[in-house]
Fold:
Amino acid sequence: MRSRNVTVEPVSRLIDEFARLPGIGPKSASRLTFYLLRAPREQALGLAEAILEVKDRIVLCSRCFNITESDPCNLCSDEGRDTSTICVVEEPLDVLALERTGEYRGLYHVLHGAISPVDGIGPDQLRMRELFKRVEDERPSEVILATNPNIEGEATAMYILRQIGGGSVTISRPASGLPVGSDLEYADEITLGRALAGRQAL
Structure:
């Protein structure tokens, strides 16, 4: 006798795939799966098409490594941006959060993570080499280390400071006001704007 009905296999697979996503546990994966089972076919197709479109059309900017449809991205190709300042962030979501403040008009560099030995993530797994080359080639007057105010973010900022500090470039960090242990993407616009405006040299 078979232990599993063949009609259940696609459901189990979808639950497993949802559970692979960050922040989604087995219960949330099951809820999402059964929500889609009850949803109209058009809604499920819309979700599937949106996922495929992201994978097919979104690339990384070859200069700042933010997500984009065109290379270079709109921010890097905007002649109105202040090219003398580079703001280093962990994730593309952080760029969106900082842009919402309206306080920053410089360029960005996205690391795509933070140093975390526990998770096996070192500098070589991040866009560190590209950052150091940009600083050498573009010679900005200031580099803002806007990594998250948690242990991993602080370790990442200190690593970058050790690599490029001591030269002609000013290295700064957003001012306090960002809750310690939180992520940049969850901070409100006012807090982020004040933190940027009150940044301090390291």
Notes: The chain has two domains: 6-57, 74-201. The two ends are 68 Å apart (CA to CA). The longest helix spans residues 41-57.
